[in-house]
């Protein structure tokens, strides 16, 4: 059984009314925005399960847009996130849907359209107490929680990729808590996700991206 | 200084001649490598938010997202200022404080989950009201919040504080138990008395289901937070008078968990049973989500 911190039971500090429907929703959208890490023209939120049924009464919609604008779960601007997003030229839409039995009752699929017309899809589950799990990027099943400093690398599925990434991480004195590699097809796109106990510095990203033959993209997610 | 049960916590307190709050602070320093100052400053930040939420309930006109609640804290204050409350002044004030925090929560205001958003009125409502009544300082209140946290940590570890998993008994029961333990330490009671007060709170509402109308954190949640502060105040008064819990805290937590697990899913936050599925509950639900 797990140890809990004082601040797990008195906390999180959050905008109400529900840790899973409001705080968790904001964190999923924030994570999705960070996965995109470039300017987004429009976003569609596909709401599944309890999110689809009760999102208006719980302010899940405002929390999603607020998180997407980069607001933390205790940021009072979440209340007025629609107005703030519109002022910033972001288009957004909510679509109740059924993603299927295999998904948690509080799941949202975030589909983002960039200015070049390309789209990016992130699926997140709100698993209780404001905690979340990202379970998919662009149709690829993967998993991270955002509770740790998380490094995400998009690489070609080629020999040497993992060795290159871990050596860059080791060089910056980062202790890996969890590391997983996912790929779409043999020789095609692959993702490496590294979660670390201490904060992963931005220098690691530059080191990893220096090998352009293997690495497509790399970025850090801190929620 | 880690403790996994009430019994272990009592042992640590006795061995080191310290209170629950101190044991909890030292545990946090050891487990997470943070300094005492950092941890206390972090808790102080949450305390300020709790106090602000209590004030907002009686000074602002708050309307909930679902429209089922709003204005209750003010109504209690108005009556309290014009006549003697049936339940006495301190209970009326604590109820109002708890209901007001729930109004802040339901209107998308800033609160501290304690241990959950659905029970976020009880700890500030009971603890801050009792502390103000007896002229306690901010430092003493922050200290009592660590006592409350220790109780919450043990219940979360060995049972659950989630309504979806264990019903309202788990959620508002844990919150009341946390508040009662904090009040006991604030009033100079012993660690054993603090645990007994928490045990009594859990026993008082054992079996209480979670049946939110339309699935929203509004009704009956807000009134159950009012009951929760009364539960905390009554239980702390019992133990301070020397009336202990016949069944030890750890066994009560275990019983609560077993009851929670055996509650049908209709009674665990799904809004499919209890008052949520009453004719009025269903009518309100279809009106809110039309």
From TrEMBL, chain A:
<dbReference type="InterPro" id="IPR029009">
    <property type="entry name" value="ASB_dom_sf"/>
</dbReference>
<feature type="domain" description="ACT">
    <location>
        <begin position="150"/>
        <end position="223"/>
    </location>
</feature>
<dbReference type="GO" id="GO:0046872">
    <property type="term" value="F:metal ion binding"/>
</dbReference>
<dbReference type="InterPro" id="IPR002912">
    <property type="entry name" value="ACT_dom"/>
</dbReference>
<protein>
    <recommendedName>
        <fullName>L-serine deaminase</fullName>
    </recommendedName>
</protein>
<keyword id="KW-0408">Iron</keyword>
<dbReference type="GO" id="GO:0006094">
    <property type="term" value="P:gluconeogenesis"/>
</dbReference>
<keyword id="KW-0411">Iron-sulfur</keyword>
<comment type="pathway">
    <text>Carbohydrate biosynthesis; gluconeogenesis.</text>
</comment>
<keyword id="KW-0312">Gluconeogenesis</keyword>
<keyword id="KW-0479">Metal-binding</keyword>
<keyword id="KW-0456">Lyase</keyword>
<keyword id="KW-0004">4Fe-4S</keyword>
<dbReference type="GO" id="GO:0003941">
    <property type="term" value="F:L-serine ammonia-lyase activity"/>
</dbReference>
<dbReference type="InterPro" id="IPR051318">
    <property type="entry name" value="Fe-S_L-Ser"/>
</dbReference>
<dbReference type="Pfam" id="PF03315">
    <property type="entry name" value="SDH_beta"/>
</dbReference>
<dbReference type="GO" id="GO:0051539">
    <property type="term" value="F:4 iron, 4 sulfur cluster binding"/>
</dbReference>
<comment type="similarity">
    <text>Belongs to the iron-sulfur dependent L-serine dehydratase family.</text>
</comment>
<dbReference type="Pfam" id="PF01842">
    <property type="entry name" value="ACT"/>
</dbReference>
<dbReference type="InterPro" id="IPR004643">
    <property type="entry name" value="Fe-S_L-Ser_bsu"/>
</dbReference>
<dbReference type="InterPro" id="IPR045865">
    <property type="entry name" value="ACT-like_dom_sf"/>
</dbReference>
<dbReference type="InterPro" id="IPR005131">
    <property type="entry name" value="Ser_deHydtase_bsu"/>
</dbReference>
Automatic annotation (TrEMBL), chain B:
<dbReference type="InterPro" id="IPR004642">
    <property type="entry name" value="Ser_deHydtase_asu"/>
</dbReference>
<dbReference type="Pfam" id="PF03313">
    <property type="entry name" value="SDH_alpha"/>
</dbReference>
<keyword id="KW-0479">Metal-binding</keyword>
<dbReference type="GO" id="GO:0051539">
    <property type="term" value="F:4 iron, 4 sulfur cluster binding"/>
</dbReference>
<dbReference type="GO" id="GO:0003941">
    <property type="term" value="F:L-serine ammonia-lyase activity"/>
</dbReference>
<comment type="similarity">
    <text>Belongs to the iron-sulfur dependent L-serine dehydratase family.</text>
</comment>
<dbReference type="GO" id="GO:0046872">
    <property type="term" value="F:metal ion binding"/>
</dbReference>
<keyword id="KW-0004">4Fe-4S</keyword>
<dbReference type="InterPro" id="IPR005130">
    <property type="entry name" value="Ser_deHydtase-like_asu"/>
</dbReference>
<keyword id="KW-0456">Lyase</keyword>
<protein>
    <recommendedName>
        <fullName>L-serine dehydratase</fullName>
        <ecNumber>4.3.1.17</ecNumber>
    </recommendedName>
</protein>
<dbReference type="GO" id="GO:0006094">
    <property type="term" value="P:gluconeogenesis"/>
</dbReference>
<dbReference type="InterPro" id="IPR051318">
    <property type="entry name" value="Fe-S_L-Ser"/>
</dbReference>
<feature type="domain" description="Serine dehydratase-like alpha subunit">
    <location>
        <begin position="16"/>
        <end position="276"/>
    </location>
</feature>
<keyword id="KW-0312">Gluconeogenesis</keyword>
<keyword id="KW-0408">Iron</keyword>
<comment type="pathway">
    <text>Carbohydrate biosynthesis; gluconeogenesis.</text>
</comment>
<keyword id="KW-0411">Iron-sulfur</keyword>
């Amino acid at each position: 059984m797990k140890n809990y911190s004082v601040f797990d039971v008195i906390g999180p500090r959050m905008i109400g009314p529900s840790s899973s429907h409001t705080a968790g929703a904001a964190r999923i959208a924030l994570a999705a925005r960070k996965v995109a890490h470039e300017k987004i023209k429009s976003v569609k939120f596909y709401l599944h399960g309890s999110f689809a049924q009760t999102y208006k009464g719980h302010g899940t919609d405002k929390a999603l847009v607020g998180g997407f604008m980069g607001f933390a779960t205790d940021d009072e601007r979440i209340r007025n996130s629609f107005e703030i997003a519109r002022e910033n030229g972001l288009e957004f839409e909510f679509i109740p849907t059924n993603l299927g039995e295999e998904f948690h009752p509080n799941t949202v699929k975030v589909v983002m359209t960039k200015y070049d017309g390309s789209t990016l899809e992130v699926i997140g589950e709100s698993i209780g107490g404001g905690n979340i799990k990202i379970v998919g990027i662009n149709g690829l099943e993967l998993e991270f929680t955002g509770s740790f400093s998380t490094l995400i690398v998009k690489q070609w599925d080629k020999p040497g990729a993992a060795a290159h990434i871990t050596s860059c991480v080791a060089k910056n004195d980062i202790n890996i808590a969890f590391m997983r590699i996912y790929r779409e097809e043999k020789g095609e796109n692959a993702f490496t996700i590294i979660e670390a106990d201490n904060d992963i510095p931005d220098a690691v990203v530059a080191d990893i991206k220096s090998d352009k033959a293997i690495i497509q993209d790399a970025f850090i997610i801190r929620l | 200084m880690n403790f996994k049960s009430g019994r272990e916590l009592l042992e640590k307190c006795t061995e080191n001649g310290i209170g629950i709050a101190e044991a909890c602070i030292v545990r946090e320093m050891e487990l997470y490598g943070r300094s005492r100052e950092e941890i206390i400053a972090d808790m102080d930040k949450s305390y300020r938010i709790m106090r602000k939420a209590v004030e907002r309930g009686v000074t602002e006109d708050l309307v909930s997202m679902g429209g089922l609640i709003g204005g209750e804290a003010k109504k209690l204050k108005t009556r309290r200022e014009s006549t003697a409350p049936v339940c006495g002044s301190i209970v009326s004030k604590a109820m109002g404080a708890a209901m007001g925090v729930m109004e802040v929560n339901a209107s998308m205001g800033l609160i501290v989950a304690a241990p959950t958003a659905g029970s976020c009125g009880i700890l500030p409502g009971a603890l801050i009201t009792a502390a103000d009544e007896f002229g306690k300082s901010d430092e003493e209140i922050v200290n009592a919040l660590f006592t409350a946290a220790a109780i919450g940590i043990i219940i979360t570890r060995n049972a659950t504080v989630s309504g979806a998993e264990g019903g309202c008994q788990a959620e508002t029961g844990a919150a009341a138990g946390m508040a009662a333990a904090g009040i006991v330490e604030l009033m100079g009671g012993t660690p054993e008395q603090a645990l007994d007060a928490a045990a009594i709170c859990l026993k008082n509402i054992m079996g209480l289901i979670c049946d939110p109308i339309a699935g929203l954190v509004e009704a009956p949640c807000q009134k159950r937070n009012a009951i929760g502060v009364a539960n905390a105040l009554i239980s702390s008064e019992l133990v301070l008078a020397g009336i202990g819990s016949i069944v030890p805290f750890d066994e009560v937590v275990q019983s609560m968990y077993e009851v929670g697990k055996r509650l049908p899913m209709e009674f665990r936050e799904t809004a499919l049973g209890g008052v949520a599925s009453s004719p009025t509950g269903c009518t309100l639900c279809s009106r809110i989500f039309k």
